[in-house]
Design brief:
Elements lengths: L1 H17 L4 E6 L6 H10 L13 H5 L10 E8 L12 E2 L8 H19 L5 E4 L7 H7 L4 E2 L5 E2 L7 E8 L18 H5 L5 E3 L2 E2 L5 H7 L15 E3 L3 H4 L26 H5 L3 H7 L9 H12 L1
Helix pairs in contact: 1-4
Length: 307
């Protein structure tokens, strides 16, 4: 059985690589003991703002066996999204993860292929795929699976790679070989804390979600608070500041996923283009993008707020 575990683990990791994932790590499906009090404190301090869904399924967030019956392993996967080119005019900035096709769709289809491969090569394996759409603590599982450490900006960081990648999971009822946790390499660096335009990183490793520019420009459905005027550093959708200033991201290399390439018009849009954007242009440029989440009215609200 031990030999099988090793063989199955290698099969899965090789297929993940073939599908284009940056890396694949595996950990035992069990209760996240260390994260439980942290999550509870974060919620009690209302750091989730109006993201009320963060309060739901508290137990499931911490215990994968409540999400998938008889689950044994959590397979964590990273997919690079760092773009080769960035917006030429930085008057209004868009988070780099949203340049191309909605990552949920891209990754779901890869996870489907990986699941099919596992069931074909190994046998009757049951499980579920997760892409940032269910109560799963992605970063905690990726760190537990040895794919990196959680940095002071609360994003997962990997040596020689940085942090510009998506995280996804397969939780399955198959015993595999488990990876070991890597150490923290943030050291005394406080670049992300010092650079955050809204001081959302309230202490090392703790981000007040309700102060984050990404929260305001994507999650918040109400009017943007006047108290935040002038503090968004020209971000109209999301924010990459804490990642951009991180020394580990000097190792970021462009992705090789064609579906993440931006719409041809996107990178050349000027301040005037954004100021005058119509719903038709919005639908064309962001047809399959994660930006659709904020809707045309939401993006317009964000642009107006930056003027």
């Amino acid at each position: 059985m031990i030999n099988n575990r090793s063989k199955y683990t290698q099969l899965i990791k090789s297929e993940a690589k073939r599908l284009g994932f940056l890396s694949c790590g595996i950990s035992k499906a069990e209760f996240l003991e260390v994260e439980a009090p942290r999550l509870e404190k974060w919620l009690n301090n209302n750091m989730h703002g109006q993201m009320s869904y963060m309060q739901n399924h508290f137990d499931k967030r911490l215990d994968p066996t409540l999400l998938v019956d008889d689950s044994k392993s959590v397979i964590s996967l990273l997919l690079n999204y760092y773009p080769e080119q960035k917006q030429s005019d930085q008057s209004y900035k868009l988070s780099k993860y949203a340049y191309g096709k909605d990552y949920h769709e891209v990754i779901k289809s890869k996870l489907k292929e990986l699941t099919h491969y596992i069931q074909t090569e190994i046998g009757a394996v049951s499980g579920r795929a997760f892409v940032d759409s269910a109560p799963v603590l992605d970063k905690a599982w990726a760190a537990k699976s040895g794919l990196g450490w959680i940095g002071k900006h609360s994003n997962l960081l990997t040596q020689k790679v940085g942090s510009f990648y998506f995280i996804a999971e397969l939780i399955i009822d198959l015993d595999l070989e488990y990876d070991t946790i890597v150490s923290d390499h943030c050291g005394t660096c406080t670049a992300c804390i010092d650079a955050c335009p809204t001081q959302a990183i309230t202490e090392p490793y703790v981000v007040d979600g309700s102060k984050c520019i990404s929260y305001f420009t994507i999650e918040l459905k109400d009017q943007l608070p006047n108290t935040m005027k002038g503090q968004f550093d020209d971000w109209m959708f999301g924010c990459d500041v804490c990642q951009d200033v991180c020394p580990w991201n000097k190792f970021s290399k462009p992705h090789s996923e064609p579906l993440f390439n931006p719409h041809p018009e996107l990178l050349d849009m000027t301040k005037k283009d954004w100021d005058e954007i119509t719903e038709d242009v919005f639908q064309k440029v962001f047809q399959k993008s994660a930006v659709k989440r904020t809707k045309f009215s939401g993006l317009q609200r964000n642009i107006d707020f930056l003027k």
